[in-house]
Amino acid sequence: MSLRSLALIVLLVPLAVFGAAGLMGWRVPVPVWGRDYVVHVALGAARAPLVLPPVEGPADPSRPLVVIDAGHGGRDPGAIGTDAAGRRVAEKDITLALAQALRAELLRGGGIRVALTRADDRILPLAHRPEIARRLEADLFVSIHADSAGDKAEVGGASIYTLSEAASSEAAARFAARENDADRLNGIAIAGTSPAVSAILVELSQQRTQEAALTFADLVLREGGSAIAFHPQPQRSAALAVLRAPDVPSVLFESGFVTNTTDRARLTTPEGRAAYAAALARAIRVFLAREAARAPG
């Protein structure tokens, strides 16, 4: 049989079958959109719009504002540990509980406005977290996390991260290119300037912000004292996207290791969280007081 004959058979047989079925009144099933044999390919949901959270505390907008970011959330559990009873301990739950404890401590002391990037168990795009602080014109951004050391249960202790110098310069350059029409950064007017001048002004703003972040990190170590068990190398820098706001002093507080028995006990009890919150709140109040004293006028 020739190739041409085979091709004709392949084409004509289905036509003959469907034609005969039509003449005899048979119903031949055909694919229908939405049936289970139709393959659906998820292209991903549209990017969620940024929604600013409520600001709690004094109604006076001149009062300093602290934005507290509970890391992870929703379908992103973060680091995972197991407690003494064999129950799963997720970083997202620890960070939210710590953020809420810190918010309560700051509001209890009065004089400071507070906002949480998330107040429940939900996913929040990484880029939204520092942007919330920027949009609210926060005076300080604190992102709370916890770590995991896998099977190395002896590794423990809290640490605090600021943006690395190289990442700071890179972030400033990107921001200048993207936000050249912004009005002001750290009180510096950049609207209407040339791209070159804008880049210089953003770099200056970023340097000022980084200095403030380092000052706050020092205060956390000082005020933490015995209330917070710190890692032997507690102060670190890294190219963390959540710290790249050029006009809001930002730190990432790594509260401890969910895989360490002592850390986990501190982080999962009300007493332990209260001690962390009190130490962080003291550092925040000292920092904001110093910043207010440095402000012009």
How would you describe this protein?
- With 297 residues, this protein is α/β, with parallel strands linked by helices.
- It is built from seven helices and ten strands.
- Mean pLDDT is 80; it is low at 26-46 and 174-190.
Individual helix count: 7
Question: Which CATH first-tier class of the domain at 65-164 and 218-294 would you pick?
Answer: Alpha Beta
| CATH fold-type name of the domain at 65-164 and 218-294 | Aminopeptidase
Instruction: Based on the coordinates given, report the CATH architecture of the domain at 65-164 and 218-294.
Output: 3-Layer(aba) Sandwich
Strand share of the residues?
15-25%
Radius of gyration using CA atoms only:
28 Å
For the largest beta-sheet, the strand count, sense and barrel status come to:
6 strands, mixed
* Series of H and E elements: HEEEHEHEEHEEHEEHH
CATH superfamily of the domain at 65-164 and 218-294: Zn-dependent exopeptidases
Cα end-to-end separation? 98 Å
Number of strand segments: 10
Helix content: 40-55%
| Structural shape | globular
Largest beta sheet: strand ordering: 4-1-5-10-6-9
Poorly predicted residue ranges = 26-46, 174-190
Helical/strand content category: alpha/beta
Mean pLDDT: 80
Quick take:
It is built from 7 helices and 10 strands. The chain is of the alpha/beta class and 297 residues long.
How are the secondary structure elements laid out?
Layout: H1 3-23, E1 65-70, E2 80-82, E3 88-90, H2 91-109, E4 113-116, H3 128-135, E5 140-147, E6 158-163, H4 165-178, E7 184-185, E8 188-189, H5 195-224, E9 230-238, E10 250-257, H6 261-267, H7 270-294
Parallel strand pairs: 1-4, 1-5, 5-10, 6-9
Antiparallel strand pairs: 2-3, 6-10, 7-8
Helix pairs in contact: 2-7, 4-5, 5-7
